[in-house]
Design goal:
The complex is a heterodimer of chains A (about 80) and B (about 300). Chain A is of the alpha+beta class. In chain A, about 10% of the residues lie in helices and about 20% in strands. Chain A has a domain at about 30-80: Alpha-Beta Plaits, CATH 3.30.70.20. Chain A has 2 helices and 5 strands, in the order E-E-H-E-E-H-E. The model of chain A has no long low-confidence stretch (mean pLDDT about 95). Chain B has an 8-stranded mixed beta sheet with strand order 3-1-4-5-7-6-8-9, sandwiched between helices. In chain B, helix 7 (about 180-195) links the parallel strand 6 and strand 7 (about 200-205). Chain B has helices spanning about 25-35, 50, 75-85, 100-105, 110-115, 160-165, 180-195, 210, 220-225, 245-250, 260-265, 275-300; strands at about 40-45, 60, 65-70, 95-100, 120-125, 175-180, 200-205, 235, 240-245. In chain B, helix 1 packs across helix 7 and helix 3 runs parallel beside helix 5. Helices cover about 40% and strands about 15% of the residues of chain B. The two termini of chain B are about 25 Å apart. Classes of the chains: A alpha+beta (about 80), B alpha/beta (about 300). The interface between A and B is large, with 39 and 39 residues. Bound molecules: thiamine diphosphate and iron/sulfur cluster (3 copies).
């Protein structure tokens, strides 16, 4: 008897472009940002990238708002998506 | 402790997972894997973590992962550790990544056996205090008073203390952690990686749909659990218990916040009576009394 094991390979977008799940979108005000990188480390999706300032990958950001809730200087606002 | 800014930038959770927005599992695992590095093999039983990986033939996990039957995690990890030893690849760390259902209840026999045998792997339980993947059923970790679909008038029993059961196995490293105190979590993962033998780490993982709170509040609730003393951060190296991070400050310098601050944000505690809240307070007070005693004994010895 032969048995086959299903093998998956690491792929971005395993569940598709999860940005389409979003109702509210995080918008970062760089003038307020103190670069503490808390948003970067707490983002459940790892879609905040460390650049000069934090940058959100909107293709995958699910709009949970954890980043905005945790930002110590309120530099992130959640804005309703216009769709 | 390593500053958050200095955490590695490598990502082992790939964007576009199947996790609900605001999921605590991916927060915990992202940082855990930053600490453990790419030479890690995950062993995952049936749970949300199996689903979060997304669908065959794709996976959102960037390290090798063995998905295994519910009760078998610690046995499978024992096997992986033995294979790595035979292959001379002992720089690779096998890590079980299991929910509380898979740990407190269904996986406890394999867990206890492997710990007693002294197997060489890390066991991480992310504790979201219920069976979330199958739609929020009670587990041995569900706290007293909490609503689940199988305790719809509130759980009548007090959650068990698995940490103390694990402690009775005399393993070299045991720790609790929180996704809010993420530098403490990172530090504990790093430490565990350098130790040989069974290591157990339990991370409190507040789940928005299961605990009934807004998805932006995952980290805030995790923080409140620690600040109110409902969840205690500790570390036991060779049996010596020490509180860490914010919990350590609660021993002397800081007051515990009122438990209501934690409970009122969660829909699962909406129907608590005053009597229920008093019972929860008593349970937390008793737990802290035990820690205070351990702490005092230590001070007296010094
Ligand atoms: C032997 C067996 N019983 C039941 C199930 C169904 N099942 C799959 S995941 C799950 C819940 C897992 O709960 P937990 O371990 O707490 O992890 P979580 O889903 O909360 O991440 C259940 C009951 C199963 N897959 N195998
Ligand atoms: S809204 Fe959520 S998913 Fe989007 S960047 Fe913020 S934390 Fe990440
Ligand atoms: S949490 Fe706020 S202040 Fe900190 S890096 Fe992100 S946007 Fe900047
Ligand atoms: S149910 Fe909870 S633990 Fe499971 S994927 Fe959703 S948020 Fe994460």
């Amino acid at each position: 008897m032969s048995m086959k094991t299903a093998i998956s390979y690491p792929t971005e977008g395993g569940m598709g472009e999860t940005g389409s799940w979003r109702v509210f979108k995080p918008v970062i005000d760089e003038s307020k940002c103190i670069k503490c990188w808390l948003c970067w480390i707490y983002c459940p999706e790892g879609v905040i990238v460390k650049k000069e300032y934090p940058e959100v990958d909107y293709e995958y950001c699910k709009g949970c708002g954890v980043c905005a809730n945790e930002c110590p200087v309120k530099a992130i606002k959640m804005e309703r998506e216009k769709k | 402790m390593v500053a958050i800014k200095k955490f590695p930038e490598e990502e082992y959770i790939l964007k576009g997972t199947a996790a609900c927005p605001g999921c605590p599992i991916t927060i915990a695992l992202r940082t855990a894997l930053k600490a453990l590095g790419k030479k890690t093999i995950l062993i995952v039983p049936a749970s949300c973590s199996a689903v979060v990986q997304s669908l065959v033939p794709k996976t959102s996990f960037g390290v090798p992962t063995l998905n295994i039957a519910f009760a078998a995690s610690a046995s499978a990890a024992s096997g992986v550790a033995a294979a790595l030893k035979m292959l001379g690849k002992e720089d690779v760390t096998p890590v079980v990544w299991a929910g509380d259902g898979g740990t407190y209840d269904i996986g406890i026999q394999a867990l206890s056996g492997a710990f007693e045998r002294g197997e060489n792997f890390i066991y991480v339980c992310y504790n979201n205090q219920m069976y979330s993947n199958t739609g929020i059923q009670r587990s041995g970790a569900t706290p007293y008073g909490a609503w689940t679909t199988t305790t719809w008038t509130g759980k009548k029993e007090i959650q068990k203390e698995l940490g103390e059961i694990v402690m009775a196995h005399h393993i070299p490293y045991i720790a609790t952690a929180s996704i809010a105190y993420i530098d403490d979590l990172y530090d504990k993962m790093k430490k565990a990686k350098e130790i040989n033998g069974p290591r157990y780490i339990e991370i409190l993982a507040p789940c928005p749909p299961g605990w009934r709170f807004d998805m932006s509040k995952t980290v805030e609730i995790a923080r409140l659990a620690v600040q109110t003393g409902a969840w205690v951060l500790y570390e036991a190296i060779n049996g010596e218990v020490k509180l860490t991070s914010y919990s350590k400050m609660l021993l002397k310098r800081k007051e515990r916040r009122p438990i209501e601050d934690y409970l009122k944000l969660q829909g699962r505690f909406r129907n608590l009576t005053e009597e229920d809240i008093n019972k929860i307070k008593k349970n937390i007070d008793e737990k802290w009394k035990r820690y205070m005693e351990i702490y005092k004994e230590k001070e007296e010895k010094q």
